[in-house]
Write a structure and sequence with these properties.
With 409 residues, this protein is of the alpha+beta class. It is built from 14 helices and 15 strands. It has helices spanning 97-114, 152-172, 218-227, 232-241, 246-253, 256-267, 272-289, 301-312, 318-331, 335-341, 350-363, 365-372, 377-389, 396-407; strands spanning 6-7, 10-11, 14-17, 27-30, 37-46, 49-62, 66-70, 73-77, 84-90, 126-130, 144-149, 180-185, 190-196, 206-207, 214-215. A hairpin with a 2-residue loop joins β7 and β8. α4 runs antiparallel to α5, α6 packs across α7 (272-289) and α12 runs antiparallel to α13.
């Protein structure tokens, strides 16, 4: 559904027969005749504009083992054998490495946003099929497939190497290209042949009689649609309409937990743009000070919205709000209780502020002289001294207004 596919109402399983060390039973349960999804589409935003990548089908199958090559020896890790997976098969629409990486990053973001997978520990892998044809030709060239790459960096390097290998073979006849399966070696930065690429007939597919067909009805589909999160493109548009910057949108879209935190805070009555600033500026600053990343943020929507509302309602100023936020992130303190216990919501009357300003001006006579002589930064130094004397509790706008009045006397 996320990939805009047609959902098959009747889907079945087939046996794909071949012998290879990573497949001990010599066949793989997969879907050939009736895959669960067909005819999807993903729209990419590239440096050259929007591009549609068409999905041929999505099918369910069981995983094979993992071949590990060390020196001249090969080993098989069977820990993931028979684990169910889905394979997304695209049409040959990609025209650059950039498009491949944008597509994969978009899929990864979708999977995280929907809770399908965090894509860790090889949960998201990629097989890349490559062919090169002379400019103007309508026929595809010889196709090679690079198997089981889990790193986007490896995928990029493998594509670049393999494309250049094909070009050299065509232009300089360095070798004869054959349809085959290859693997990429991180250490050498090169691909190498694994086996000749079989055709569909070589696999001798036949229906798996041990597995019943799956019938997908309208009621089931509607239940799934009802609990699906908003599509990431729709969410990005909503953030854009709220006035959130493109840089901030990119950070939110690629971090599901943070995006959900923002949505929950907004649902509690906070402004989306303001809440995004608190998360992506204040929270990030506090995390960075503690050597952490945005993904490490641990704060509830209730606590964050409480802090934002304290500031918006004038109960505390922005500086105090950030102090409370720091305590919540670093120690797990309750924001309201922390504010009360430390008297951070104490009100400072105008007379007290004026008295502090007078004292600061006397103690910082040189800064006053510098300001009178046109040094604008001197006023900021005086303002900072006033805030410190008042322990950052007083309203900064009130201090600025009264300080300006005193300096202009």
């Amino acid at each position: 559904l996320m990939l805009n596919c047609d959902i098959s109402r009747y889907t079945t399983f087939d046996k794909k027969n071949y012998y290879y060390p990573d497949l001990p039973c010599a066949y793989q349960i997969t879907q050939l005749n009736h895959p669960i999804c067909t005819n999807g589409c993903v729209t990419l935003k590239t440096s050259e504009g929007e591009r549609d990548i068409h999905i041929k089908q999505i099918h369910m199958e069981e995983d094979a083992g993992k071949l590990v090559h060390i020196g001249k020896a090969s080993y098989v890790d069977f820990n993931r054998t028979s684990v169910p997976l889905i394979e997304i098969v695209t049409q040959p629409d990609f025209r650059s490495t950039e498009e491949v990486l944008i597509y994969l990053n978009k899929l990864k973001t979708m999977f995280r946003a929907s809770g399908i997978s965090e894509c860790e520990e090889g949960a998201m892998r990629c097989d890349v099929n490559i062919s090169v044809r002379p400019e103007g030709s309508t026929e595809y060239g010889v196709r090679t497939e690079i198997k089981n790459m889990a790193s986007f960096e490896a995928i990029e390097k493998a594509i670049r190497y393999e494309v250049q290998r094909h070009i050299d073979a065509i232009e300089f006849e360095t070798e004869e290209l054959v349809q085959e399966t290859r693997r990429y070696d991180d250490a050498t930065g090169k691909t190498s042949a694994m086996r000749n690429k079989e055709t569909e007939a070589d696999y001798r597919y036949f229906p798996d009689a041990n597995l019943m067909p799956i019938i997908i009805d309208d009621e089931w589909l509607e239940k799934i649609k009802a609990v699906m999160p908003a599509a990431i493109d729709e969410k990005a548009d909503a953030y854009r309409e709220a006035g959130i910057s493109e840089k901030e949108i990119d950070m939110l879209i690629h971090n599901h937990n943070v995006s959900k935190l923002l949505d929950d805070v907004v649902a509690l009555g906070c402004d989306a743009k303001n809440a995004a600033a608190w998360i992506l500026t204040d929270c990030v600053g506090i995390l960075r000070k503690n050597g952490k990343l945005l993904g490490d943020l641990e704060i509830t929507a209730d606590d964050l919205s409480a802090i934002i509302k304290m500031v918006d309602n004038g109960d505390v100023n922005r500086v105090i709000g950030r102090k409370i936020l720091t305590a919540v992130i670093e120690t797990g303190a309750d924001p309201v209780a922390y504010c009360k216990e430390n008297a951070l919501d104490a009100k400072v009357d105008t007379a007290t502020v004026e008295k502090v300003i007078d004292t600061v001006l006397v103690e910082n006579a040189q800064a006053v002289t510098d300001f009178k002589n046109g040094k604008v930064k001197a006023k900021q130094a005086l303002f900072g001294a006033c805030m410190r004397s008042l322990k950052n509790i007083a309203d900064p706008d009130v201090i600025r207004e009264l300080l300006d009045a005193r300096l202009n006397d």
